[in-house]
Amino acid sequence: MTKAYDHFIGGETVTGASGNYRDIFNPSLGDVSGTVVLANSEEVDLAVKSAQEAFHGWSALNPQRRARVMFNFKRLIEEHADELALIISEEHGKVLADSHGDIQRGLDVIEFACGIPHLTKGEYSQGAGPGIDVYSMRQPIGVAVGITPFNFPAMIPMWMFGVAIATGCTFILKPSEKDPGVPLRLAELMMEAGAPAGVLNVVNGDKAAVDALIRHDDVKAVSFVGSSDIAHYVYQECAKTGKRVQAMGGAKNHGIILPDADIAQAVKDISGAAYGSAGERCMALSAVVAVGEKTGDQFVEAMTDEINRLKVGISTDEEADYGPLVTKEHRKKVEDYIQMGIDEGAELVVDGRGFSLQGYESGFFLGPSLFDKVKPEMKSYEDEIFGPVLQVLRTETFESALDLPSQHQYGNGVAIFTRNGGAAREFAQQVEVGMVGINVPIPVPVSYHSFGGWKRSAFGDTNQHGMEGVRFYTRTKTVTQRWPEQMTEGSSFIMPTMD
Ligand code: NAD
């Protein structure tokens, strides 16, 4: 039976009336497993109206009560984790254990958001002047929108609405058209957790829905995660009307291997970071910089052996290391990049093209590929490939290894593998990248720190979750107060000071 996904607005399913639909696939089978309706501007208006109406009551609730809803939501997600993971695996193609990781990383943000009374506490300065006290409070910004990519259908929505809703904002989620099943379920569970209708709405759609949302006067903040050109577009559109905006984009995450590194350990770490989730992670480690010819030779040899041990399988195969790509079109794009790398003169050590899984010949599978002798000027290196392809570059010095990620257009994550604390410290200090791992291949920060890259990996000033997330969804108001018994007589025409 195929699924038909609609919208979730005002606490209930709303049947889309646009007449525009998009197919959802099961990437392991290559079959259409359902459809999702794409919203028109009236449906976007309805969602904004619903969120706007819910805002007054929700934002006025004391923060402990909002925290209680988050606690309930956390429990419900835990109870439904298997169901949610299966939906992710069936729509996205990542293996079940990885889908559980997707959910858990989102849940970590919900746990963080449970502490919202403490996180939004204000500041108070008694006696800032004669009889004068000053206090600051953080107030929720209003209706917030989240536009999310296909690759983390649980984690990224929760990064956004988890914090937004806890602060008192109401939220409209526009998930990826490729895997809307879990975002819709999350909204239902949020209602079950006790959030009033309209606090979390889901509008499905494509560019038309995004444009209607980011141009809507009643939307006050927009959080976007996806590819860089669209992130930049969303950032510019929001800035035009003074909306608060954070727009995270694509990536090319480097792994620097210094000659003193434990190569065997680095290979284990990097194989998971490069090929896990078929490389469809914004923090996938997709380029290795080997310092020294010997390091490069050892790494490529050991990684080739490691790749030969990898198992590609359907997303419900518990033995599989990774599953299919999300769509046939995306697989073709990755294959084209492999061809581009060959044409540009890189050495294709392992070719994952032509991989076929017996019994699942129509699935969107692609075997792991490994390139050696990649050069910085190659387009296949400049671009994000977003597939199971690892590119190895070789350099002779620490300085040139530091330059490669620093000068790349993207600056999401980077990892250095070494036993030298001084070199690692210097690298972390100097590198022009937002998230750094030291012998940690995927340095996604924990929920109470914040997530965000530099350069074309993120537009806007505030990161996702942690205190940066709390600041994104709230505005500071500062009150300077004096009471009648402290009043001085007469007017003053000079700039007031506290002296
Ligand atoms: P995408 O940019 O195609 O889509 C992201 C969202 O934008 C979706 O909701 C989609 O419906 C919407 N969209 C698509 N085309 C649009 C248009 N022309 N105008 C307005 N909105 C549009 O990204 P994707 O393929 O779903 O996800 C993969 C990308 O996301 C990769 O580039 C990956 O690196 C990036 N990503 C970044 C982060 C991060 O935090 N930096 C995290 C995850 C994924």
Percentage of β-strand residues:
15-25%
Please provide the count of β strands: 23
In CATH terms, the superfamily of the largest domain is: Aldehyde Dehydrogenase, Chain A, domain 1
Helix content: 25-40%
Shape: globular
End-to-end gap? 75 Å
Which ligands appear in the coordinates?
nicotinamide-adenine-dinucleotide
The CATH architecture of the largest domain comes to: 3-Layer(aba) Sandwich
What is the CATH class of the largest domain?
Alpha Beta
- The helix/strand class is alpha/beta
Mean pLDDT: 97
CATH topology (fold) name of the largest domain: Aldehyde Dehydrogenase, Chain A, domain 1
Computed over alpha carbons, the radius of gyration is 25 Å
Question: How does this structure look, described?
Answer:
By secondary structure, the protein is of the alpha/beta class. It folds into two domains: 3-249 and 457-479, 3-Layer(aba) Sandwich (Aldehyde Dehydrogenase, Chain A, domain 1); 253-438, Aldehyde Dehydrogenase, Chain A, domain 2 (3-Layer(aba) Sandwich). The chain is 39% helix and 23% strand. A seven-stranded mixed beta sheet has the order 15-16-17-14-13-19-20, sandwiched between helices. The chain has a six-stranded mixed beta sheet with strand order 10-9-8-11-12-22, with helices on both faces. Helix 4 (96-113) runs parallel beside helix 6 (155-167) and helix 10 crosses helix 11. The longest helix is centred in the N-terminal third of the chain and has 20 residues, at 41-60. The termini are far apart. Nicotinamide-adenine-dinucleotide is lined by residues 147-152, 174, 176-177, 206-207, 210, 225-227, 230, 248-251, 282, 384, 386, 412, 453, 457.
